[in-house]
Amino acid sequence: MKRILVQKDTQFAVLGLSKFGKGIAATLYDNGYNVLCCDRNEAAVHDATEYATHIVQADVTDKLALQKMGLSNFDVVIIAFSSDFESAAITATILKELKVKYIIAKANGVRQKQILESIGVDRVILPEKEMGEQMAYNLITNDLMESIHRSDKYDIIEMRPLAEWVGKTLEQLKLRQREGINIMAIIRDEEIIAVLDAKTRLLDRDHLIVLKSI
């Protein structure tokens, strides 16, 4: 799966403002990102004033409308609807023609996922496995967090260290006290480091296995 490095100036566009699309857009917006939102439903567009930088009411299967939005200048475009799969596939095809850098789309089922991937969609989300808010947080953390286990009290997840953690020791970070995160192990250069101490320093290439309180 192709990945994208998300930075603070990354530009997002969300097409379709159902619960899924709204969850993505609002989470990105709340975390300081510029988000263009588009839907053909007037009420949905009106509600988006609370969580969007720019708002457009348009039919996203209309190539001219997408061109006018300047989507080729956006870093990530998210097709957040799947109830009308034909429209989603058409939209994905147009975005590829416009040479959008990174396309994410929602799918209902494996067959739809395969079709969207064959069109050239970079990442396909199956909503029964990944909610909009979690996907947006994955983007913010450069798409490198994956849930391994979840209970009603904690998660055990694999994640990459945030930029501000790199080069610092566990003693300096105090992640347990500040973030409720306990690093259980580090995967570094395909080796597992299971014995950690306060002087353990995090590197950019590390993958962390952490226990996080909910």
How is the main sheet built?
6 strands, parallel
Detail the poorly predicted runs. 148-152
Overall 3D form: elongated
Going by helix content, strand content and strand pairing, the class is alpha/beta
**Rounded Rg:** 19 Å
Distance from N terminus to C terminus (CA atoms, Å) equals 28 Å
Number of strands: 11
Order of helices and strands: EHEHEHEHEHEHEEHHEEE
Main sheet: which strands, in order across? 3-2-1-4-5-6
Strand content: 25-35%
State mean pLDDT (0 to 100 scale): 84
In short:
The protein is α/β, with parallel strands linked by helices.
Describe the structure.
With 214 residues, this protein is of the alpha/beta class. Helix 1 packs parallel to helix 6. It is 30% helix and 26% strand. Mean pLDDT is 84; it is low at 148-152. The strands form two sheets. Strands 3-2-1-4-5-6 form a six-stranded parallel sheet, with helices on both faces. The chain has a five-stranded antiparallel sheet with strand order 7-8-11-9-10. The protein has helices spanning 19-30, 42-47, 63-68, 85-97, 110-119, 132-140, 170-173, 175-179, and strands at 11-15, 34-39, 54-57, 76-79, 103-106, 123-125, 146-150, 154-159, 181-188, 191-193, 207-213. The chain starts with 10 loop residues before the first strand and ends with a strand. It is elongated, with a radius of gyration of 19 Å. The longest helix has 13 residues, at 85-97.
